């Protein structure tokens, strides 16, 4: 907003956020004693493998995939709740995490961190029940010393509450006095308090009823227009993502398998997994008709299939798919697409 | 009973719910969570019940299977299953009906299964409770059931524990349990909500196939209109404890009559349309402690007029559906014309 948008004006079209070959593994080995006594090996879970993606200023990038595909891990990596095992995350040119982060200017990193804020799925769990709403919203302002004095902070909080469709008087209440949708508005106000350029939204409407979801999605669209925000919007709901996103990335077992402008992805999906996902969406227009359900389930991420992780469920898989992991070329990671078979 | 109910020519309903009221006595008076709900379900029919949180859809299902937690109770109305009145039966008799006559599938498959027993044991126990079978026959039947719901290598998987199954497979096991007693009615409360879309599609297909093959009636309670569109024959839309619209699924989805249904349909994003913004119903559903006078939807309704705040509309015919809205009454002729 204020200071950050001036620098943003010169940098439109450039990448605001850049992930290069970002990988995150979790050590889920049994305890040391069990490993020694039972001769069990170390077990590594590859939650995110080699994800490279750029997010331009002012756009909304949607990330979709089924449970366990690593989309929430990507969100947490971006905001710094996890450190990447490998790879680099750059925000506005500053390395904020991964290789090279130590040598970056600490003040610039701190500024970059403040410019990225997160909205979580569960508005019941992400607000401190013992704090008044005004304090919840004021916390980032106080932490980053964005205003001078209590009166200015209060004024800013009132403004933020009005931004998200609440009344300044609501600041005196506690979170339990609000419905799920209103709580999500409070979460958004809190995220905006840090004057961010980028909002990472991890399933922001999944816990809400459809009519309330519509209110929140419309509010987010309005705020994006007004404040020039950039969104990373993570959801398992393809219909929601198709509505809000300019570009959409599809993840499967920790890898990005396809990325394309929203319109193209939903009208001409290329990766077989994307096609499968889109086919599986129940559609109101199909009333009474049946669709071909997809066979199989997401494999155990602890022992992903060799080659392309999707090959056991893929109708186009051949011998190459079973041994060789496809490279991510021209927005899609699929041997069949690369070879022109589909 | 069937002679009195429903239009002539339609088959006798399997389930007939008449002016059902579910209430909760509290210190500050009685809360009415389900109010005057009437509907019926024919054999082999899938009735979808949609609504947002707090609309009373799950409580309606719980009332039918007699699983309302005290102090909640059925305050008025009747529930008939196959012509026999089942509300108010003693618990011992209700237990015989549950499982044998009415099967239940709930949202979270993990809480519906006992984590300490193999699924084979849970299935054979259920089968033997309801059907006179030997242990060996029941086990054979259990394998058949698991195969029927699409569990690969059923003969081996039967000795596994619930935690060894994935979410989608667990929900299949729960469905196998629900159909083990060969019930005539299945009440499925948000059966696909906890599942990924690709698995959700598989479970919907399974429910539809079982319904077709066995003539089982299904009451499908969900907040997901897409699931209803794909599965249900008829749909009832609930708001603040009452049914506000009920009718054939295609008509309710494509030509909704009640302003709440119109708003609900408009607020659902779809991957096929190019809208920039969703239609939005402002406000939230009222709490049962503060149901507005007249039509409960009137404070949020864009088309409300003074009568809506004073008088509560009953369900009235609107083309092929029935809707509880004064607009339907004031414009019956146009409503008929549009529906043709």
Which key phrases capture this entry?
heterodimer, A: 342 residues, alpha/beta, Rossmann fold, six-stranded mixed sheet, four-stranded antiparallel sheet, 36% helix, 20% strand, B: 340 residues, eight-stranded mixed sheet, 14 helices, globular, disordered C terminus
Describe the fold and architecture.
The complex is a heterodimer of chains A (342) and B (340). Chain A has 342 residues and is an alpha/beta fold. Chain A has one domain (2-115, 195-285, 292-338): Rossmann fold. Helices cover 36% and strands 20% of the residues of chain A. Chain A contains 13 helices and ten strands. Chain A has helices at 2-10, 32-38, 71-79, 106-114, 133-143, 150-163, 180-193, 210-227, 238-244, 262-267, 272-280, 319-323, 335-338; strands spanning 15-27, 44-56, 60-64, 86-91, 94-98, 116-119, 198-202, 230-234, 247-252, 255-261. In chain A, helix 5 crosses helix 6 and helix 5 runs parallel beside helix 7 (180-193). Residues 1-12 of chain A have low confidence and may be disordered. With 340 residues, chain B is of the alpha/beta class. Chain B has a domain at 233-270 and 280-340. Chain B contains 14 helices and twelve strands. In chain B, strands 6-7-8-3-9-10-12-11 form an eight-stranded mixed beta sheet, sandwiched between helices. In chain B, helix 5 packs across helix 7. The longest helix of chain B is centred in the middle third of the chain and has 18 residues, at 197-214. Chain B is globular, with a radius of gyration of 21 Å. The two termini of chain B are 32 Å apart. The model of chain B is unreliable at 1-9 and 333-340 (pLDDT under 50).
């Amino acid at each position: 907003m204020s200071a950050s948008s001036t620098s943003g004006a010169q940098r439109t079209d450039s990448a605001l956020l850049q992930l290069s070959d970002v990988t995150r593994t979790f050590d889920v080995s049994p305890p040391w004693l069990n490993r020694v006594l039972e001769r069990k090996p170390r077990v590594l879970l590859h939650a995110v493998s080699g994800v490279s993606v750029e997010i331009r200023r002012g756009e909304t990038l949607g990330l979709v995939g089924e449970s366990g595909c690593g989309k929430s891990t990507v969100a947490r990596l971006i905001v710094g709740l996890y450190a990447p095992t490998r790879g680099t995350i750059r925000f506005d040119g500053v390395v904020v995490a991964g290789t090279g982060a130590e040598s970056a200017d600490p003040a610039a990193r701190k500024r970059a961190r403040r410019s990225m804020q997160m909205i979580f799925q569960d508005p019941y769990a992400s607000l401190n029940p013992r704090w008044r709403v005004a304090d919840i919203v004021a916390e980032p302002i106080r932490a980053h010393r964005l205003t001078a004095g209590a009166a200015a902070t209060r004024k800013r909080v009132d403004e933020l509450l009005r931004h998200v469709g609440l009344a300044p008087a609501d600041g005196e209440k506690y979170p339990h006095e609000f419905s799920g949708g209103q709580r999500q508005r409070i979460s958004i106000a809190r995220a905006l308090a840090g004057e961010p350029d980028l909002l990472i939204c991890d399933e922001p409407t999944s816990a809400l009823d459809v009519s309330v979801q519509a209110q929140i999605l419309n509010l987010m669209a309005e705020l994006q227009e007004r404040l020039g925000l950039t969104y990373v919007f993570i959801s398992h709901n393809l219909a929601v993502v198709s509505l809000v996103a300019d570009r959409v990335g599809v993840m499967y077992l920790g890898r990005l398998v396809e990325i394309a402008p929203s319109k193209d992805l939903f009208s001409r999906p290329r990766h077989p997994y994307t096609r499968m996902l889109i086919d599986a969406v129940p559609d109101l227009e199909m009333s009474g008709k049946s669709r071909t359900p997809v066979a199989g389930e997401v494999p155990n991420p602890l022992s992903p299939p060799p080659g392309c992780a999707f090959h056991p469920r893929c109708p186009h898989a051949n011998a190459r798919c079973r041994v060789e992991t496809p490279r991510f070329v021209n927005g899609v990671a699929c041997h069949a697409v690369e070879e022109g078979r589909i | 009973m069937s002679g009195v109910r429903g239009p002539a020519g339609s088959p006798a309903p399997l389930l007939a719910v008449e002016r059902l009221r579910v209430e909760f006595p509290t210190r500050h008076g009685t809360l009415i969570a389900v109010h005057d709900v009437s509907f019926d379900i024919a054999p082999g029919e899938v009735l979808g019940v949609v609504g947002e949180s707090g609309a009373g859809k799950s409580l309606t299902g719980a009332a039918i299977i007699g699983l309302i937690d005290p102090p909640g109770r059925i305050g008025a109305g009747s529930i008939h299953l196959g012509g026999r009145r089942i509300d108010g039966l003693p618990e011992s008799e209700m237990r015989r009906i549950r499982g044998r006559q009415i099967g239940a599938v709930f949202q979270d498959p993990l809480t519906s299964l006992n984590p300490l027993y193999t699924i084979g044991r849970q299935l054979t126990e259920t089968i033997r409770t309801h059907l006179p079978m030997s242990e060996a026959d029941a086990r054979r039947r259990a394998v058949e059931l698991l195969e029927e719901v699409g569990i690969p290598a059923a003969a081996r998987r039967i000795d596994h524990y619930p935690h060894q199954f994935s979410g989608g497979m667990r929900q299949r096991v729960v469905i196998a349990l629900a159909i083990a007693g060969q019930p005539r009615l299945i009440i499925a409360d948000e059966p696909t909500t906890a599942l990924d879309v690709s698995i959700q599609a598989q479970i919907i297909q399974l429910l539809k196939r079982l319904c077709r093959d066995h003539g089982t009636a299904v009451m499908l309670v969900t907040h997901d209109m897409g699931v209803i569109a794909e599965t249900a024959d008829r749909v009832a839309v609930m708001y603040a404890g009452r049914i506000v619209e009920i009718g054939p699924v295609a008509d309710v989805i494509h030509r909704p009559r009640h302003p709440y249904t119109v708003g609900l349909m408009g607020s659902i994003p779809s991957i096929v349309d190019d809208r920039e913004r969703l239609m939005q119903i402002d406000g939230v559903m009222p709490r049962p402690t503060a149901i507005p006078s007249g039509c409960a939807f009137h404070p949020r309704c864009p088309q409300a007029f003074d009568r809506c705040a004073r008088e509560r509309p009953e369900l009235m015919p609107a083309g092929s559906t029935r809707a509880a809205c004064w607009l339907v009454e004031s414009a019956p002729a146009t409503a008929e014309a549009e529906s043709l």
